[in-house]
Amino acid sequence: MSLHSTRRQYALRALGWLIAVMLTFVTRPWPVAAAPTLVLPTPPGEPWRIIQGYACGTHNGWDRYSLDVAQVNGPTYNAPIRAAAAGTLWHWEARSGTIILFHGDNFFTMYTHLSRPVTTERGYAFAVGDVLGYAGDRGSPGIPHLHFTAYTASANGWSGRQSVPLRFAEGYDLPEIGGCNQHGGTILTAMSLQDPQVTFSSVALPAGWYNVDHQIDFSVTWGGGGLSQAWDSEPPADGPMFPGAYDGYARLSDMGEGWYTLYVRAWGLDGRQTLARYGPVGYDVSPPVLHVTPSSSTLPANQSVILTWPAAIDPLSGVAGYRLYLGPDPDGESEWFEVEPRVAIPPLAPGTYVLRVKPIDNAGNVGAWQTVQTVVVTQHP
């Protein structure tokens, strides 16, 4: 063998060694400084069974430590699936219904066979427990279930993937125990993490009066156990009026005219309760009433004066003020507004004027225009 051939052989060996070292770094699972604490990705308070555990069937590659889970009481399909830890949406694959969340430090969680996602926006941030999609059978038709995996990977998120044995904050520790279908048949129940939260939405804002029958909508997060509602009293705590409901509504007209507070009691799937209230808010469709007998007065020209009239009556929302007209037209109207039943009249030219008034209440109801006084302005005192 020539010296040239020997050198070439050494160079090829060295190059091969260098490539092997580089591939080792590329494919090696990236070290995780601290894996996040995981919660079960299933709805809180519901029992789910592991129908396929570790190291069996399709769980025999990089995703050895995966779980297939389904509702104990069915049907699993369209059950909300939540983020096992806070993270951002890193990948969505429609064919298999797979969402992958990135949690930092090269740690990922994967949720597969979803019927539909909440969003497919890459980088969308989920808090722990946020619903990210709904269970289904995409990629595995026939048996709706959730395939869940937590894993580490290299910097690119794909190479060097390595699943990790699962441990959940609910107290479930699922280590490697050897054999096929490890932990199969185990029943897992997720915790709520927090009490139900009730969110209200309405055009009718608290402390306001309204003459339109607005709707008050409410929805519950961290709920699912049901809800109850009542006006001006707390709903009983012994059980929900609407089991399993996540949202509802009430209308201002439910109790007729008046000043009311809406109470909503929400249940989580684990029995936690929250009592929330909205209001008080007022409903008033009756116009204010003005009882007046028209009067007459005579004034000298170029003299200011204060004119008054009886206060209007509105037993619900109260009187907000009065539209006024002062002029020669017996049917005149204007946008002039005064809060009190009195007005300072500037000096007027000689002539005959009518003062007309229309009361308005705090809900926006208006009474009729009425002439309260005729004013005759003379040329001389």
Provide the fold topology.
Blueprint: H1 3-27, E1 47-52, E2 66-71, E3 80-82, E4 87-93, E5 98-102, E6 107-112, E7 114-117, E8 125-126, E9 131-135, E10 146-152, E11 162-163, E12 166-167, E13 173-174, E14 187-189, E15 197-201, E16 209-210, E17 215-221, E18 224-231, E19 247-251, E20 258-268, E21 273-283, E22 295-300, E23 305-308, E24 319-327, E25 336-338, E26 342-345, E27 351-361, E28 370-378
Parallel strand pairs: 16-21, 22-28
Antiparallel strand pairs: 1-2, 1-14, 2-10, 3-9, 4-5, 4-8, 5-6, 6-10, 7-9, 10-11, 12-13, 15-17, 17-19, 18-20, 20-21, 23-26, 24-25, 24-27, 27-28
| Number of separate domains | 3
Can you count the helices?
1
According to DSSP, the number of beta strands is 28
What's the alpha carbon Rg, rounded to whole Å?
Answer: 37 Å
Low-confidence stretches: 14-33
Name the CATH class of the largest domain: Mainly Beta
Span between termini:
139 Å
Whole-number average pLDDT?
Answer: 90
Morphology: elongated
Order of helices and strands: HEEEEEEEEEEEEEEEEEEEEEEEEEEEE
What class, by secondary structure content? mainly beta
Kindly report the oligomeric state of this protein: single chain
Helical fraction:
under 10%
CATH topology grouping of the largest domain:
Glucose Permease (Domain IIA)
Largest sheet: 9 strands, antiparallel
What is the percentage of strand-forming residues?
35-45%
Question: Under the CATH scheme, which architecture of the largest domain would be assigned?
Answer: Distorted Sandwich
Look at the structure and name the CATH superfamily of the largest domain. Answer: Glucose Permease (Domain IIA)
Protein name: Peptidase M23
Organism: Chloroflexus aggregans (strain MD-66 / DSM 9485)
GO molecular function: metalloendopeptidase activity
Pfam families: Peptidase_M23 (PF01551)
